[in-house]
Amino acid sequence: MRQETRKTRQKEIQRATLALLVQHGYAATTMASVAKAAGASLETLYKWYGDKPGLFRAMVQANIEELRDELVMSAAAFRDPLAAVQEFGPQLIAVLTSEEVVALNRAAAADPSGDLGRIIAEVGRGSIAPQLTDLFARAIESEDPAQVTEVYLGLLLGDLQIRRVIGRMPPPDAVEARQRADRALEMLRRLFPVYPSKLPA
Amino acid sequence: MRQETRKTRQKEIQRATLALLVQHGYAATTMASVAKAAGASLETLYKWYGDKPGLFRAMVQANIEELRDELVMSAAAFRDPLAAVQEFGPQLIAVLTSEEVVALNRAAAADPSGDLGRIIAEVGRGSIAPQLTDLFARAIESEDPAQVTEVYLGLLLGDLQIRRVIGRMPPPDAVEARQRADRALEMLRRLFPVYPSKLPA
DNA sequence: CAGGATCAGTAATTGCAATTACGGATCATC
DNA sequence: GATGATCCGTAATTGCAATTACTGATCCTG
Fold it and tell me: Which 3 state secondary structure label does DSSP give A98?
């Protein structure tokens, strides 16, 4: 099979795996059910991914990277750093509380090896936080822009993520997400001085 | 067997269950391993708890209540509300990032029924947040003290919990916890006006 | 068009853990 | 001290899912 074909095939398999993970959880997602849903054979799954953890490792990696790339793109579309943050916040809430990311986090929580958690942390937070820190470094006076990011994320998300992961909350809708993000940014601006040139006109 | 004896026996079983959960996770904690560790028989486990989820439900309930009671006690020991919060913050960080609570959260994340998550949310947050809200209502001018609590928890914990649960972080030590709590309270006081009478002497 | 590789579909194989069943010891109660 | 209940320890039973093996079908490559 050609490389291109295989790549799209793998994407299909990983998509099917994620769908089953969202619906049934890690333990109840069997290799057989993945094969059936993806129209692939067990032999192929094992040849390509080695074993069940291997499949999920690849799936998590691919999906987290995909989500990251979407977020990266949207952030780059702005010149004014705080305007970018303002746009970014609600998206970040939406992504991090989505069924998909919640399911990925649950899988990571159940993974004794810690591989899934490492992937999520490195690819997810590891690439998102620096972007935010860059934006804040351009907009806010602080010797430690990374800490501004910390505070912002705390204000933005609170314990939304952990509550979602243990299953005690629906995802916030778009209106709530925007409100929450606006409040977080407003509080952040009261906590840290904004460069005068960056004040809104 | 007398009531008292049975109660202590159940406590032993639940303690052993938690220890195994912390060490191996939910999936790898077998009923047989619990029986062995607790020196109980499988028959007793099934007679008392019905099935594996039942055992874990009871265990989570008992342990969360125990943790809550410890926190409740410490908070009641103060007269000045913000002093109580100041003392409470580091403890809350320590408890919520402890191996035990992380393991309980992981079990809840893996539980498809949502029972464990419900227990944790209701017994845990459901009793802690109102206590904090009471303290803030006495110390801070706000039409919505519950939201002050929200903000405080966000500043205090950030994404510590979710990062702990997916396995990408050691628990913060006592010094870090206190620093973090102090910073959170200090930021909170800049965000919300404190009643003059409550200002420190 | 032959040859070899790759894949889907299905049928073993295997191991593990939840659950059940049973025999002997222990303990509270009368 | 008898007795019935309760408990421990261990040995089935059972079901499920990961993993492996086998059989044609399909698709590139020359």
Answer: coil
Residues A194, B144: Cα–Cα separation, whole Å: 27
Report the CATH number of the B59-194 domain. 1.10.357.10
3-state secondary structure of B190: helix
Count of CB contacts below 8 A, A vs B?
114
User: How far is residue B30 CA from its own chain's centroid?
Assistant: 24
Rg (CA), chain B: 19
Question: Which residues does B196 contact at the CB level (< 8 Å), separation at least 6?
Answer: none
Q: Would you state the pLDDT for residue B89?
A: 95
What residue spans define the domains of chain A? 3-193
Stretch A111-128: mean pLDDT, rounded? Answer: 94
Distances from the Cα of A147 to the Cα of A93, A141, B179, angstroms: 19, 12, 13
Nearest chain A CA: its distance from B54 CA (Å): 17
Distance of CA A196 to the CA centre of its chain: 33
CATH 1.10.357.10 assigned to domain A3-193? The reply is yes
Model pLDDT for residues B95-127, shown as the tens digit of each residue: 999 999 999 999 999 999 999 999 999 999 999
Residue B31 CB in 7 A reach of strand D: no
β partners of residue B143: none
- In the structure encoding, which two tokens stand for residue A193, read together? 């001085």
DSSP annotation of B198 reads G
Tokens encoding A86: 């303002």
Can you name the residues that pair with B194 across neighbouring β-strands?
B140
Q: Is A46 within 7 A of strand D by CB distance?
A: yes
Taking the C1' atom of every nucleotide in all shown strands and the CA of B30, the nearest one is C17
Gap from B1 CA to chain A (nearest CA, Å): 37
Is residue A194 helix, strand or coil? strand
Q: Please name the residues between 164 and 193 in chain A that touch chain B, using a CB distance below 8 Å.
A: 165-168, 187, 190-191
**Given an 8 Å threshold on Cβ–Cβ distance, is A109 in contact with B114?**
no
> Whole-prediction pTM value?
0.92
Using left for φ > 0, alpha for ψ between -120 and 50, and beta otherwise, residue B39 falls in: left
Q: Using the Cα atoms of residue A137, residue A138, residue A139 and residue A140 in order, give the sign of their dihedral.
A: positive
Q: Tell me if chain B has a CB within 8 Å of the CB of A120.
A: yes
Nucleic strand C within 7 A of Cβ B29: yes
Cβ A159–B151 below 8 Å, yes or no?
Answer: no
